[in-house]
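Protocol step 4 of 6.
Sequence for Septin (Takifugu rubripes) entered exactly as in the expression construct, tag removed. Do not edit the line below.
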Amino acid sequence: NTDSSLEKTNEEKRTIELNGHVGFDSLPDQLVSKSVAQGFSFNILCVGETGVGKSTLMNTLFNTTFENEEASHYGNKVHLHPQTYELQESNVNLKLTIVHTVGFGDQINREESFKPILEYIDTQFEKYLEEELKIKRSLFSCHDTRIHACLYFIAPSGHSLKSLDLVTMKKLDSKVNIIPVIAKADTVNRSELDKLKIKIMSELVSNGVQIYQFPTEDEAVAEINSSMNTHLPFAVVGSVENVKVGNKLVKARLYPWGSVQVENENHCDFVKLREMLVRVNMEDLREQTHARHYELYRRCKLEEMGFKDTDPDSKSFSLQETYEAKRKEFLTDLQRKEEEMRQMFVNKVKEAEAELKEKEKELHERFEQLKRMHQEEKKTLEEKRRNLEEEMNAFNRRKVAAETLMGQAVQGGSQPFKKDKDKKK
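Step 5 output, structure tokens:
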């Protein structure tokens, strides 16, 4: 009964009138002054093929010249190049980070072109989450590098989206606010451009790609945002060259047949893009990044770490118990991996021992074979030696017999010669 009465008390709202000025109506002014003193950060990811006009559009969008080297078409992989700038307009400071995808779409095999982009976005989320989980946090002073808006540049080289564009946007739509733009829109005539816009939006819807929709909840911007949602994707042209048109200088691209004025809404949608991205919905893009995309990443990471929310019917949530359970799970997994590695080592040793035994057996058989061959050769040599000795003995016997016969012959011949000599005397 006590809990229900407390809930009823909390649910009841009482309205009273003030008898004088208190001063909390200055809270909006306090928030504005505090925000201006802290400054703002805004991070834009430019995804598009090399040479589609990403750098030129950024220079035109912020009315300055950013340092950026011209990329070649021969990169063997996609890598991201972030650059941070300090901008000031009136008394508002903006820390702007522009991230270019260098080498996107230049490879023959484009199956993994989106992976470096996803890894970069997740890395920025991971940095912010690490800062949140620190004991001594400094979220207000740390540089927020999370991507707030992704300008996806579509090359007007066909009648529909490329498979690379569809796959990449499908992978990115749950991690970043995607705003598709048709780059170099002055290369397509008006009727073809309108058909291309309809075709692109149709393909995005049919493939389930969720792009950023300008919010219509706030009455102050509901009308303009709902109108601008019908112009997506924006067909833009960028230029930092000042061309004299009439009596004034305007940013335009000059051709032999005339000029394309960047800030002329009859020529392109650049003004609409700048209005929606910077002047009207920049804060909503920052809030959507934090409340939707980062929150999804944070929830998945915390669930992987073993954290969970409490339900009204469940027990209270204990960080110590969660830590101990996760630590126990980690130790169990570590012991399992150690046992697997030990068993793998034992199996490897057994395989090596079996291989060594097999080689030893082969070596022993080879040794026995050589031993038998040696014995046979030795036996053969012994027989040859005996035969040679017998031949030598027989030769010696024949030699002795021959010498004996010769001796006898010599003695027999000398005796008659002596008798003849005696007779002569």
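Step 6, annotate. Strands lie at 40-47, 79-89, 92-102, 149-154, 178-182, 234-235, 242-245, 248-255, 258-261.
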